[in-house]
Design goal:
2 domains, 8-stranded antiparallel barrel, elongated, mainly beta
């Protein structure tokens, strides 16, 4: 068997990888080269995309593909560097995206994005944005936005929007998180959002566990439980690049910024 590596992989391996892990990777390379079969390597790896595998060594993830008898290593990522609580995109470290410090994104101070003061963004007063009155945005009546009926918008059936198979939307494998945070009414965040495509976003907790997902509809998103695809809540635009979070009865329970 022959080992190949991209310039990106080689650069990270020799310049940014801990020495103890580097030694284990080089040992792995030797084992692969001396092996007559790749079956053992495949069995110890996870398939993420078509012909893209991930091999774990401590906190590192090695991405590789198979080309006949060649193993091409394309990338290496240290998992701990992607934990959301260490990210510069975390409101605990970046006050610009923290509503406790930036009042312009805090509906408790900015009444224009507060549905208790701005009735145009409050589904209890504006029935056009209330799924209980507008059936076109209610997945219980509009099956095109209901993942229990439309499998193309259901991560359990569509691998391209499932982070177990698409590493580009998996925060444990892709450090380039660029999404929004979900806050409760006390300005505390427990979840963040990663856009899977133009229609779907994924909602993770701070342990990078996928909890639920959103399906785009007019003026917002319908939120579904990831495991059961149960319709649980909805988001409506606040008119300023964010959303307000409502339960199914239209009660305001949080916001997204």
């Amino acid at each position: 068997m022959r080992i190949l590596a991209t310039n990106n992989f080689s650069n990270k391996l020799y310049n940014y990888t801990d020495n103890s892990v580097k030694d284990k990777i080089l040992t792995l390379f030797k084992q692969i080269e001396e092996s007559k079969s790749l079956l053992n390597l495949i069995n110890q790896s996870n398939l993420t995309l078509e012909n893209v595998y991930v091999y774990k060594i401590q906190d590192y993830r090695l991405f590789f593909t198979l080309e006949k008898d060649d193993v091409l290593f394309v990338d290496i990522i240290k998992k701990e560097s992607q934990k959301i609580n260490l990210s510069i995109k975390n409101p605990n470290y970046n006050t610009h995206i923290n509503p406790k410090f930036n009042t312009s994104i805090n509906p408790n101070y900015n009444t224009s994005i507060n549905p208790q003061y701005n009735t145009s963004i409050n589904p209890q007063y504006n029935t056009a944005i209330n799924p209980n009155y507008n059936t076109s945005i209610n997945p219980q009546y509009n099956t095109s936005i209901n993942p229990q009926y439309n499998t193309t918008i259901n991560p359990q059936y569509n691998n391209s929007i499932n982070p177990k198979y698409n590493s580009s939307i998996n925060p444990s494998m892709n450090p380039s998180f660029n999404g929004l945070f979900i806050f409760d009414l006390n300005d505390v965040f427990d979840y963040y959002i990663i856009q899977a495509n133009d229609t779907i976003f994924l909602i993770y907790d701070l342990n990078n566990e996928l909890i639920s997902f959103g399906v785009k509809r007019e003026t917002g998103y319908s939120i579904f439980n990831f495991k059961t695809s149960t319709y649980s809540s909805f988001l409506s635009s606040d008119g300023q690049n964010g959303f307000n979070h409502f339960d199914l009865t239209g009660n305001w329970i949080g916001y997204v910024k």
